[in-house]
Amino acid sequence: MSTRRTIEAWVEQFNAGDAAAISALYAEDAINHQIPLTPVVGREAIEEFHRETFAGGPL
Asked: Which residues partner with 31 through β-bridges?
């Protein structure tokens, strides 16, 4: 998948609120650093981070 398509897929899945699909786009050992939050390390942790984010309601 091209870089452009990966970014488009990420945005599509974010807008759909699909934490599992977003995390599937990350490497197993990825680091997601949302400043000023603590870095989130690993695909499973990134999925959980997005699940919690989406549970708070529409963004």
From this structure: 41
36: domain CATH number is: 3.10.450.50
Read off the pLDDT of residues 5-22 as tens digits, 9 standing for 90 and up. 999 999 999 999 999 999
pLDDT tens-digit readout, 19-49: 999 999 999 999 999 999 999 999 999 999 9
User: Residues 20, 26, 12, CA angle at the centre, nearest 5°?
Assistant: 55
Alpha-carbon span 5 to 9, nearest angstrom: 6
Count: domains in the chain: 1
Residues 6+ apart with CB under 8 A from 39: 31, 32, 33
- Domain with 19 in it: 3-55
